[in-house]
């Protein structure tokens, strides 16, 4: 993302927000001139702990999703038998909105951290499995020829072809599922916890502290932006060849 | 010696090659020529263990050819380079697969002879067609393979670079003289390079000795051979 363009679009957004607050002229939409200074003043004392919790939950959810989803996608995409048996199960579960399963996980695993991370993990997991599987299935068969001629084993084909070839799909899967993950994170933080940006925003609303509520919303969107930039940096590092 | 006995290859109910038998001696180059789609590349892929065959057998030194035991170097028509690996990693990949330590002196000499020593940190996407072809050739010979398969390795090059690449190939081949099979659609190339020529035709094949190897292109013997080869490919001889 271009730094200059990012600054310009941020300023544009703040101006639009300020104008809207002037037109509406109600407490429910405070001006960014109030929100931004307030945000900065409570950042270290109040917000940082909530950011830490939200960030940890989303990162662990994504990392577990990658750790299980990437190898599973490769196995299902490459081995015909695995595809025959596992794909129908994936097709059955994939379309279910994962948020609909949240009550079940709450009953099974309680209201603690595990449930919050698990629901993000599920969103990322299926996106990765389906994308990686399709990517592997679409690979040009001639890509395997150089290794076939060397009599290479499946493990070597996985190491030298399937893992690097599926890396772009992995990054795009994480990008695609990130937006949904943040939405689900917000929802899951509105119960069973007193930490996390979801809790902070809802708590501020109930206390009718709209300036603080908007501070939480801004930080949540910045967290999303930060994660997108982080994925871009990592993918640029590992996909130099593209 | 590589011996092919009664080889038949069928792909999705199409018979590509039928009842093919011939043998190739060590330290020699055999060119395979014939019309496009006649099965030249398919035959080479069968020898490399990429394509399965429906009947027959391939032997190397009287044992069934097994690409896990015999080192086979293969330069593909479309190069077959992995875009995610640097030139260096692409070249040494066969050594890694076969778990053989890199012979630094040989590696350096290949890079220098092929003029690709300055490209080793680049990715294939940053190479020209000619550079990719030289990298593919380097990868095929890095193992010092017993069997070297080259599938139209110079087809992407213009006439001048093609001649250069051919001379370079012959120089490198001469250093350790592997059994080499060279697929080409260019009869001149076959006559200039190979000791034997295998002509694939519809439902038949001919293997001949190349008596004009090393002769000049305008030598009467060379011209006669060229004409008779053209007739053989067309199936009138």
UniProtKB/TrEMBL annotation, chain A:
Location, primary (coarse class): membrane
Any one Pfam family match given in the protein's UniProt record, by short name: BPD_transp_1
Keyword annotations from UniProtKB, A to Z: Cell membrane, Membrane, Transmembrane, Transmembrane helix, Transport
PROSITE patterns named in the record: ABC_TM1 (PS50928)
Record InterPro entries: MetI-like, MetI-like_sf
Highest taxon of the lineage: Bacteria
BP GO annotations: transmembrane transport
Record protein name field: ABC transporter permease subunit
Higher taxonomy: Bacteria, Bacillati, Bacillota, Clostridia, Eubacteriales
From TrEMBL, chain B:
Keywords associated with the record: ATP-binding, Nucleotide-binding, Transport
Xref: SUPFAM superfamilies: P-loop containing nucleoside triphosphate hydrolases
Domain of life of the organism encoding this protein: Bacteria
MF GO annotations: ATP binding; ATP hydrolysis activity
Domain ABC transporter as annotated: residue spans: 2-227
Record PANTHER family: SPERMIDINE/PUTRESCINE IMPORT ATP-BINDING PROTEIN POTA, SPERMIDINE_PUTRESCINE IMPORT ATP-BINDING PROTEIN POTA
Protein name listed in UniProt: ATP-binding cassette domain-containing protein
Species, as recorded: Alkalibaculum sporogenes
